[in-house]
């Protein structure tokens, strides 16, 4: 019965049915299902399936957005219970579009996928300068700093963040990830980023893997 309701949560989330997800999450809690099980095997599992389909071009941005909305609706019901049982996120990520750049669709998808992978997210929005990225990362004890750029003219601002981290002796403290339409592997290497990923699902997978490896070492 537990597996059945958790699978239903995953299936409705994949279809973007927020109302059904909310009701089923509440039903599962009322039946005494472990909140962590609802989160991991229902909400996060469903979101990762959507992410995989997005990566393979089987679904597109609108489908991801409605699935993410359904996940948020479920998490809102679940959050108080997760706090009660002391559920720890796998890591903390500070994410934003760099200074001078106001594009946020790609960044928003990354935020959703990172949430889906179990991260606690601090979304700084767009037009974010180096000081703001670093101040927030220091404030919250972030594991990951994720930067997005859609304009070639704003790409150098990614390097500024990494340079300031180095100047302040903080570079090794963070996993720095970059992405966006004009960004590529070669540019990421050139500016000293840890990882470049081409899409939001890969970003979540790489971030999760990197954080878990770092915590295990």
Automatic annotation (TrEMBL):
<dbReference type="GO" id="GO:0046872">
    <property type="term" value="F:metal ion binding"/>
</dbReference>
<dbReference type="GO" id="GO:0005829">
    <property type="term" value="C:cytosol"/>
</dbReference>
<dbReference type="Pfam" id="PF02607">
    <property type="entry name" value="B12-binding_2"/>
</dbReference>
<dbReference type="Pfam" id="PF02310">
    <property type="entry name" value="B12-binding"/>
</dbReference>
<dbReference type="InterPro" id="IPR050554">
    <property type="entry name" value="Met_Synthase/Corrinoid"/>
</dbReference>
<keyword id="KW-0170">Cobalt</keyword>
<dbReference type="GO" id="GO:0008705">
    <property type="term" value="F:methionine synthase activity"/>
</dbReference>
<dbReference type="InterPro" id="IPR036594">
    <property type="entry name" value="Meth_synthase_dom"/>
</dbReference>
<dbReference type="GO" id="GO:0031419">
    <property type="term" value="F:cobalamin binding"/>
</dbReference>
<dbReference type="InterPro" id="IPR003759">
    <property type="entry name" value="Cbl-bd_cap"/>
</dbReference>
<keyword id="KW-0479">Metal-binding</keyword>
<dbReference type="GO" id="GO:0050667">
    <property type="term" value="P:homocysteine metabolic process"/>
</dbReference>
<dbReference type="GO" id="GO:0046653">
    <property type="term" value="P:tetrahydrofolate metabolic process"/>
</dbReference>
<protein>
    <submittedName>
        <fullName>Cobalamin-binding protein</fullName>
    </submittedName>
</protein>
<comment type="similarity">
    <text>Belongs to the methylamine corrinoid protein family.</text>
</comment>
<feature type="domain" description="B12-binding N-terminal">
    <location>
        <begin position="1"/>
        <end position="90"/>
    </location>
</feature>
<dbReference type="InterPro" id="IPR006158">
    <property type="entry name" value="Cobalamin-bd"/>
</dbReference>
<feature type="domain" description="B12-binding">
    <location>
        <begin position="90"/>
        <end position="217"/>
    </location>
</feature>
<dbReference type="InterPro" id="IPR036724">
    <property type="entry name" value="Cobalamin-bd_sf"/>
</dbReference>
